[in-house]
Fold this sequence. Notes:
By secondary structure, the protein is of the alpha/beta class. It has five helices and nine strands; from the N terminus they run E-E-H-E-H-E-E-E-E-H-E-H-E-H.
Amino acid sequence: MDNVTPKDPDGSSPPLVLVTGFGPFRRYLSNPSWVAVQELRALGLGENIRMHIALLPVHYQRCRELVARMWETLRPQLAVHIGVATAAKTVILEQCAKNHGYKEGDICGLTPEGNCCIEGGPEKIESLVNMRAIYKKFRSTDIAVLHSRDAGRFLCDFVYYLSLHHGNGRACLIHIPAPSSDSEAKTLGKVLQLIVREMLQQLETDIH
């Protein structure tokens, strides 16, 4: 699914942001992360930003294939992966992803070979986005966010590592709490919109 924006007058395409959520797992027949992604898609990121959303299964091997393919074919300026943190009470901005320690089975009960993302890869990859700076910016508002350096060693962390690898650091992971109502889901969509816009602004400022 793609929010398509016409090309700029000079013929160039506006920036593309890839946003992913996850499919069903455990007690969630409809994954809250995917619900939030669809709320974000409905809001959009602005007239000059294209958004492509994708649903990832809670399956290590399929995610490995899909993440590599999306970076190769879409070439986004930024990939934003949304995952649900079942015990969380607020939005969590994850700074980095880890390569090893994936011992929890996916929806098929499988784990990645060697319990790692990429054999021989670095133990940790950092996002080019400074999550702490974004956390500090929103700390003075009524939007509650946290900053984290441990994404949990499950599919969220796994996808994040692969995306950081393929995208040379141009990826982010945002953990969200599970909303208890439609209104909470819509609020999460608005919060994600603000955060992703801030991420894009930070990257643009750093590039220039």
